[in-house]
C-alpha cells in the first residue's frame, strides 16, 4: 500500500546549495537582457524604417548614394551599429537557449553553440567593419566607377 504525505504538513527546510554548485545569475541576466534589448530593438528598427521609408522618398530612393550619405553621419553609423550588435546578441542568446533546450547530447550542444558563436562573431566583425570603413569615394578608383556625388 502506498501512502501519500499530508499536503498540509509542514515541509522540512530545503538544504541550500553551496556557492560552488550554483550557476549564478547568468540565466536571470540573459532573461532581463532579452526583454530590455527587445524593447530597444523595437525603437531602433522602427526609427530605421521611418527614416528610410517614410521620411524620404520611399523604397525607390534607397540606393548606394542614400546609404553613403546616411553613413556620412556618425549618428546613423552608431544607430546602425547598435541595431546590428543588439540584434545579433539578442538572436544569439535566443538560439543558445533553443540549443540548450533541445540538444540532448553534450557533444551536439557544444558543436551547435560553437557554430552559433562563430556565426555571431563573423557577422558582427564584418558588419562593424563595413559600417566604419565604408568609403563611397575611394581615392584610387576609376572615375567611371565612382558615384556622381564623388568629386574627382
Automatic annotation (TrEMBL):
Cofactor: heme
GO cellular component annotations of the record: membrane
Biological process per Gene Ontology, one example term: tricarboxylic acid cycle
Keyword tags: Electron transport, Heme, Iron, Membrane, Metal-binding, Transmembrane, Transmembrane helix, Transport, Tricarboxylic acid cycle
Single GO MF descriptor: metal ion binding
Membrane topology: Multi-pass membrane protein
Region described as Disordered: 1-21
InterPro entries for this protein: SQR/QFR_C/D, Succ_DH_anchor, SuccDH_FuR_B_TM-su
The organism's place on the tree of life at top rank: Bacteria
Localization in the cell: Membrane
Record pathway: Carbohydrate metabolism; tricarboxylic acid cycle
Pfam entry (one): Sdh_cyt
TM annotation in the entry: 28-51, 71-89, 110-134
The protein's role, per its UniProt record: Membrane-anchoring subunit of succinate dehydrogenase (SDH).
Designated name of the protein: Succinate dehydrogenase hydrophobic membrane anchor subunit
Source organism of the structure: Cellulomonas persica
Biological classification of the source: Bacteria, Bacillati, Actinomycetota, Actinomycetes, Micrococcales
